[in-house]
Amino acid sequence: MAHSKGLSIRDTVLATPLLSSTSTPSISSDRSSSDTDGSPDASFRFEFENPNFKIPSSPVSRFESYKSLAVLSGHIGSVSCIALCGEFILSASQGKDIIVWQQPDLRQFTKFGQGDGSVKALISAGNRVFTAHQDSRIRVWKVSRSSENVIKLVDTLPTTKDFLGKFMNQSNYVQTRRHHKRLWIEHADSISCLAVSNGLLYSGSWDKTLKVWRIPDFKCLESIKAHDDAINGLFSSNGVVYSASADGKIKAWGSEGKNKMHSLKGILEGHRDISLNSVVVSDDAPKVVFGGGSDGYIMGWIGNQDMDSWRIICEVKAHKMAVLCMCLVGDYLCCGSADRTISIWKREMSGMLSRHMVIQGHEGPIKCLQASPTRVGCGFLLYSGSLDKNVRVWWIPTTSSSSLQITEKEKCTFV
């Protein structure tokens, strides 16, 4: 296992607000209906730490307890994915257990879903929501506030039209395992991740393939044998798609030529004998690709203009256990881990990472993270989903200059 080289982790001072009082607001909204009578499930529980709290313009005592702004409970299983869709936050666990939370009061607005298996990935694009399922299919949902059904199922991928157009031609079948064939437009195992870019939907699967779908008509355009092991994460940036895999590699895919077919542009190598579980890419130039590994490391790469040569610019042991998810907001990299903690890292001009803070509060591994792009006071909102079946909402300050470990039940301790 490689160790951190040349990485400066600075000690910084972080002050965080005390959010300890609890109240339960009335659950009333202008929603029309949910799956049944439009009311939340009996298991639904909403905890808001302090609805009258105002984010301070200056730090408070550094030894005060730090709590999540809200705990959103009501899922029947582990929370596997979170997405932001306009005024809504979407969180999913099982196929029929996708909950819509309305901002800013974070009350349960409605619930939707289909199928019995777990939802592996969730992403929104315009007025559409795409959900990837354990049954190897993608559901397409339309969001409409003018309709009685706020979120309505409009199609399933591969579509019936796409299937019927190919199933009678033997050349459209590929070997998935011994004595078993499938159409190349079908995934042969669970779909683990989704990405959207330039009118295209990308799906990555445990079957090691990356498929490309055209959003206007939901037609499958390509199926790429992308990796030697399961694909765990996807990220799209400026027409390039990055795939992270259990084979320990991140690959960059770009489209070019008249047919716009995707080809391999570069390979980013991680540590030996580990799985890369997540990938995110910075917006600035030069772009930095970050990967989170099963060994608890975060690694960062930078490539040349042609993306055929990559070098590691940072690597740090971020967690005691596997990094399961990541998200980027501005200069801050947020990482969720199997060790039940969330670490926040500040990107430096040199390309290095400095530890900003570590948050504890979930009672299970952190499976998914989403950050709001809108600033709230001197910070941003972070949403986390866990195997403890809860979604938590955190306010992350960005004006601090120190490094603390923030716990839900204990006072802050330095790390």
Structure description:
This protein has 415 residues and is mainly beta. The chain has a domain at 1-16 and 55-67 and 318-415: YVTN repeat-like/Quinoprotein amine dehydrogenase (Methylamine Dehydrogenase, Chain H, 7 Propeller), CATH 2.130.10. 1% of the residues lie in helices and 50% in strands. It is built from one helix and 33 strands. It has one helix at residues 160-164; strands at 45-48, 70-73, 81-85, 88-92, 98-102, 107-112, 119-125, 128-133, 138-143, 151-157, 173-177, 180-183, 191-197, 200-205, 209-214, 219-225, 231-237, 240-245, 249-256, 261-269, 276-281, 288-293, 297-303, 310-317, 323-329, 332-337, 341-347, 353-360, 366-375, 379-386, 390-397, 404-406, 413-414. The chain has a six-stranded mixed sheet, with no helix packed on it. The chain has a five-stranded antiparallel sheet with strand order 1-2-31-30-29, with no helix packed on it. The relative contact order is 0.14. Residues 1-65 and 401-415 have low confidence and may be disordered.
Give a concise summary:
InterPro entries: JINGUBANG-like, WD40/YVTN_repeat-like_dom_sf, WD40_PAC1, WD40_repeat_dom_sf, WD40_rpt. With 415 residues, the chain is mainly β.
Major pleated sheet: 6 strands, mixed
Query: Could you name the CATH homologous superfamily of the domain at 1-16 and 55-67 and 318-415?
Result: YVTN repeat-like/Quinoprotein amine dehydrogenase
Helix content: under 10%
Radius of gyration using CA atoms only: 21 Å
CATH class of the domain at 1-16 and 55-67 and 318-415: Mainly Beta
Supply the number of helical segments: 1
CATH architecture assignment of the domain at 1-16 and 55-67 and 318-415: 7 Propeller
Beta-strand percent range: over 45%
- Which fold does the CATH topology of the domain at 1-16 and 55-67 and 318-415 refer to? Methylamine Dehydrogenase, Chain H
Compute the number of strand runs.
33
* Cα end-to-end separation: 23 Å
Q: Spans of 5+ residues with little confidence (pLDDT < 50)? A: 1-65, 401-415
Which whole number gives the mean pLDDT? 81
Which shape, going by the Cα principal axes?
globular
Strand order of the largest sheet: 25-26-27-28-32-33
Structural class: mainly beta
Multimeric state: single chain
